[in-house]
Amino acid sequence: MTNDRPIGVFDSGIGGTSIWKAIHDLLPNEQTIYLADSKNAPYGQKSKAEIIALSMKNTDLLIEMGCKLIVVACNTATTNAIQELRAKYSIPFIGIEPAIKPAATHSKTQTIGILATKGTLNSELFNKTTEKYQDIKIIEQIGYGLVQLIEDGQINSPEMTELLNSYLTPMIEANIDYLVLGCSHYPYLIPQIKKILPEHIHIIDSGEAVAKQTQNILRDKVGFSTAKSTAPIFYTNTNPKVLTEILENKYQVEEKDF
What we know:
Layout (H helix, E strand, L loop, with lengths): L6 E5 L5 H10 L5 E5 L11 H17 L4 E4 L2 H14 L4 E2 L5 H7 L4 E6 L1 H4 L2 H7 L6 E6 L3 H6 L6 H16 L4 E5 L7 H7 L5 E3 L2 H16 L10 E4 L4 H6 L6 E3 L3
Parallel strand pairs: 1-2, 1-3, 2-9, 3-4, 5-6, 5-7, 7-8, 9-10
């Protein structure tokens, strides 16, 4: 089964590029279109109704562009809107959720930490997931301010270091041995986080799992592209500078009103 139409990816900004990179590395022949809705970042502080409306807006645009499946590369949008998206649209959706399962399964201290947005931690889907692991102590921390600093290009700023220290120190003191990154922006903070965490604490994000699930859906339902090489397309509704830099100036980013 072949299908040369593009894969659509959207996020509340630049963070979902961490998911996009994992997909692109695993499926380099697939055409991808990425929407960075940075104008409305962060989604994590918005109401469920607002998150659903923004997710539908992004979906409508990607469908107009001919996408064959859509990756919701945002934990907040997945946990708050993916059920509504799947109910409204016939196109396949792949979501991204905090990787609680591998952390809970492998933890030796029976204590794990999760750093995520308010929208993710307060969502019904996240609470249903954590209910499965009653014997594991889960230290939850809302990452107030982190997404905005990343969107502003302040990954290595003193403000970022101060925030991460304040969020991670209580987790270290609680004896976590796994830290789950529950926002697609946060993998860009891993070098900073590693400076704070002891070496024995493992960091988990969802990029590889989402890429493998994308591959599975292409194989089973949608079809792979036969193209030999396709340049990815990136759109943002704010200044392209930070998105261009996070992509290491390798790809052209177009500013678009959406």
